Amino acid sequence: MWPFICQFIEKLFRETIEPAVRGANNHLSTFSFTKIDIGHQPLRINGVKVYTENVDKRQIILDLQISFVGNCEIDLEIKRYFCRAGVKSIQIHGTMRVILEPLIGDMPLIGALSLFFLRKPLLEINWTGLTNLLDVPGLNGLSDTIILDIISNYLVLPNRITVPLVSEVQIAQLRFPIPKGVLRIHFIEAQDLEGKDTYLKGIVKGKSDPYGIIRVGNQIFQSKVIKENLNPKWNEVYEALVYEHPGQELEIELFDEDPDKDDFLGRLCHITLLNFQWFTLDEVSKGKLHLKLEWLTLMPTADNLDKVLTSIRADKDQANDGLSSALLILYLDSARNLPVSYIFMDALWS
């Protein structure tokens, strides 16, 4: 399958990524890929999990543990600034979910397939000419790390790649599904964190300036910083849309804010309990985090809206922008008979 996967990736780069980059910034309007060669080393699938419970009978859900270490050749240029850069190798490791739906009674038996990562994969890119690229106006505030985060998040739910296999399938419903629900995260407090700030060249141990980064898929929230405190109280609330349940997981990292590089204070992964809970932080010697998690199911009617409004008014001060009572989903399908703009042509002829 690898040669055909490479063809699909090249098509994705040229028809989706290239126009998106051009439209992102006026300085990138002449951006283009001059060569796309993913290489001959195929993707490896190290494990497969198939879901058989609590799934729609017209779909098949697979989780693939993928690993790709490839010598590729991807060249790009920005003609306006005579800039050339490229990629000569890529590594990517993570869990990719593949959904085959709808199942149909005729060949090829599957109407479409959707691909996405449940959480940010491990991504490493060996660049050529990256310095030239970052010298382009509008990009000089970026870094290698920021670019990797942008690429990674493009691959993570709710972003997805949907490939129709038959013409009759409703592609919009597959590409933009209704969320399964909302996860309300009460980010309350922490205790007994490590003191990372030091004085007199490390002789005297100080405290920390802790803050948290909360991730659900590519939705990222950052708490306020509590200065000089090993037992901080944030009492903040965040709400994240959940599109795959089970599958999407809550991930939290704590850091100590510093002028140069923030110090790591601990991590929580694979959190599934929906109640008040103290969690012991991973990958550090000490520290606990206090959370309250609520699962909010979406209702198709507004019958219970008054009850929900009454409930959240009591907690209105917990979130900076208030707690949600409903979810509005707007799908922009198409536009017709738009006025013709001659601005580009005028500029061209002048």
Automatic annotation (TrEMBL):
- Ranges where the C2 domain occurs: 165-296
Which compartments is it annotated to reside in? Cell membrane; Endoplasmic reticulum membrane
Would the keyword Methyltransferase turn up in this protein's UniProt record?
no
An example GO CC term for this entry is: endoplasmic reticulum membrane
The GO annotation for biological process reads:
endoplasmic reticulum-plasma membrane tethering; lipid transport
Report the Pfam families cross-referenced here: C2, SMP_LBD
Q: How does it sit in the membrane?
A: Peripheral membrane protein; Multi-pass membrane protein
Q: Its domain of life?
A: Eukaryota
**All copies of domain SMP-LTD, residue ranges:** 1-166
GO terms, molecular function:
calcium ion binding; calcium-dependent phospholipid binding; phosphatidylcholine binding; phosphatidylethanolamine binding; phosphatidylinositol binding
Instruction: List the keywords (alphabetical).
Output: Calcium, Cell membrane, Endoplasmic reticulum, Lipid transport, Lipid-binding, Membrane, Metal-binding, Repeat, Transmembrane, Transmembrane helix, Transport
- Family recorded in the similarity comment: Belongs to the extended synaptotagmin family.
Name listed for the protein in its UniProt record: ESYT2 protein
Q: Which organism is it from?
A: Calyptomena viridis
